[in-house]
Amino acid sequence: MKRREFITLLGGAAATWPLAARAQQPNPVRRIGVLMGIGQSDSEGQARVVALRQGLEQLDLKDGQNLHFEYRWGAGDGNKIRSYAAELVALAPDVILATNTPTVRALQQLTRTISIVFVSVSDPVSDGFVTSLSKPGGNITGFSTYEPSMGGKWLQFLKAVAPDVLRIAVIFNPETAAHSLYLPSLESVAPSLGVKIVSAPVRDPNGIQALFSSLVRERGDGLVTIPDSFTVVHRAMITQLAEQHRLPAIYALLPFAQSGGLLTYGTDTISQYRQAASYIDRILKGERPSDLPVVQPTKLTLVINLKTAKAIGIAVSDSLLALADEVIE
């Protein structure tokens, strides 16, 4: 055999060795992409990652052993989310976890073959992510955050702590929030409670500042914050300004109460990340997202921050405290 032929043969064999070795592995390393809507330095983002990994570890799926994670952090920025979505799709992972409506939308525009499991999506049917909740029909499925009574409950709890509220501003980023879902729900309940809903779209921190400058507590103003990555990223600013302006406010996610928000009522997001592990596991074992029904929330939790209530001069009734799943003092 000529030397050149030997070298060529040897090189060809070496190129096939890694593939053969992978084929012989009983537990190959599976790749999971995670596209987060919030920032890496955000404590809530880290808590969600921990919950996901805990859920996977309970199913014997462990990072560094039979799993490899690729994380991307959108930090509430639509351009970053779209860019990172393209990066993850190019890596062709086995499954991508998408963590809110903008991340799912960005991924859907890039792939109809890579399996996607979502959490914190309000209305996957109307957004066109799935055909129906029971039969998603494509490469996407997951866990919804919306329950039809949420909007009315936000107003009821807000009126319970601040009966004199007459006008309620609804803050959201129109580019990232499912406002078309929540606003009609709020507006339909408002007349029965004697309140007026005022749409308050904001797109940047300056918009948040301007909104609060226009709200005056003495005129009976209150605040509802629609859940989305933008408001979560800026929750410290929103809750601090609400306290500074002595505005009674209710939010959909627990991190707002932990940041000083007066009330929160909504889905246990951390629990959804643990639950998402089960769908990732089933897909890795061969099930198709199209056959895995979207899971809707079965329990909504009420959290009351008494420290904030005291700071803005609100006395929370014993009857409302009795309804709370958690009280922050």
The CATH class designation of the largest domain is Alpha Beta
CATH topology-level fold name of the largest domain: Rossmann fold
Shape: elongated
Proportion in helices: 40-55%
CATH architecture of the largest domain: 3-Layer(aba) Sandwich
**Topology as H/E string?**
HEHEHEHEEHEHEHEHHEHEHEHHE
Ranges with pLDDT <50 over ≥5 residues? 1-24
The termini sit apart by 82 Å
Query: Could you say which structural class the secondary elements and strand pairing correspond to?
Result: alpha/beta
Main β-sheet, spatial strand arrangement: 7-6-8-9-10-11-12
Could you report the average pLDDT, rounded to the nearest whole number? 90
Q: Estimate nothing, just give the exact number of structural domains.
A: 2
The major sheet is characterized as: 7 strands, mixed
How many DSSP helices?
13
What value does the Rg take, in angstroms? 23 Å
Descriptive account of the structure:
With 329 residues, the protein is an alpha/beta fold. It folds into two domains: 28-146 and 269-291, Response regulator (Rossmann fold); 150-268 and 300-328, Rossmann fold, CATH 3.40.50.2300. It is built from 13 helices and twelve strands. Strands 7-6-8-9-10-11-12 form a seven-stranded mixed beta sheet, with helices on both faces. Helix 3 (78-91) packs across helix 4 (101-108), helix 5 crosses helix 6 and helix 7 (205-214) runs parallel beside helix 9 (235-244). The radius of gyration is 23 Å and the shape is elongated. The termini are far apart. Mean pLDDT is 90; it is low at 1-24.
